[in-house]
Amino acid sequence: MHKTPARLSGNRVDWDDERLSALLKKTEGWTLDNRDTAEPLDVQLHVGWGASSGRHASLVWERDQAVVLVTGFAIPVGEHVRIDRHAGEEVRSAWGVVVDGREGFRAEDREAGAWVHWVHVR
Predict the structure, then answer these.
(1) Angle at 84 between CA 80 and CA 87, to 5 degrees
(2) E strands, 51-121, where?
(3) What is the C-alpha separation between 61 and 67, in angstroms, rounded?
């Protein structure tokens, strides 16, 4: 049986309510990118299953099974990646799939030609 999201949550939403429309219009220009204010972590990113050499990337946000990476190149949605973090002599690896990506909105992103990617980590 197919249920709408409003029925799943138990809350009814009146999408024609003028107050809701006004609120949604205020958020139209927002460009959130899920980055903490913490210092980015330099990582090596291996794109594709058979990638033998890594490329530089910055891990800028991490929660549960999601990470946000900033790169100097685009990665297609659905691409498999391996993220290597170097901690002294050790390398910790995580595997995931790119679920979204776009050019960076921030001024420093545009200057550097940066791309922001959301990765679901397994």
Answers:
(1) 165
(2) 55-63, 66-71, 80-87, 90-103, 115-121
(3) 5
